[in-house]
C-alpha cells in the first residue's frame, strides 16, 4: 500500500509539473540540442589540395557553439575544420589549428557570442574525402 501511494504521488507530481509547463532538465538539454541542430546548414566538400572556406555566417542564440558533423555512410572519411572569426583575424581559432570531424556532432568553436561573423575553413583529412556532405550548426 505504501508503495502504491508513493507511485501515485510521483505520477501526480509529474502530471502537475507537465501541466504547469515545467520540463525536466534532461528534456531541456535535449530540446536545446534539437533546436541548435534543427537549424543545421547542409554543405558539400569537394576534394581539393587547399582548404576551402564556407560562409560568411553569423552566429545566433540558437547555439552557443559552432558544431559540425559529416553526413556520409562511407566509413573512415573525415574532414578537418576550423573557424575564422572574420571581424578579428584571418587565422583559424584555437591557435590556427584544425580539428578532425566525423559523423558525430563535434565542436569547432565553443562559447561563441551571438552576432559573431565567421567562415568555416575545411580541408580533407586524407584523399578518401572526395565528395563529402556535412552539416554545420551555429
Descriptive overview:
This protein has 138 residues and is α+β, with helices and mostly antiparallel strands. Helix content is 26%, strand content 33%. The chain is built from 3 helices and 8 strands, in the order H-H-E-E-E-E-H-E-E-E-E. The strands form 2 sheets. It has a 4-stranded antiparallel β-sheet, covered by helices on one side. Strands 2-7-4-5 form a 4-stranded antiparallel β-sheet. The longest helix has 18 residues, at 2-19. The model is unreliable at 1-18 and 21-29 (pLDDT under 50).
- Total number of β-strand segments? 8
Oligomer: single chain
Helix/strand structural class:
alpha+beta
**Largest sheet: number of strands, sense, barrel closure:** 4 strands, antiparallel
Number of helices: 3
> Percent of residues in helical segments?
25-40%
State the strand order across the main sheet.
1-8-3-6
Specify Rg, calculated over alpha carbons.
Answer: 20 Å
Shape category: globular
Low-confidence stretches: 1-18, 21-29
Mean pLDDT: 82
Distance between the termini: 52 Å
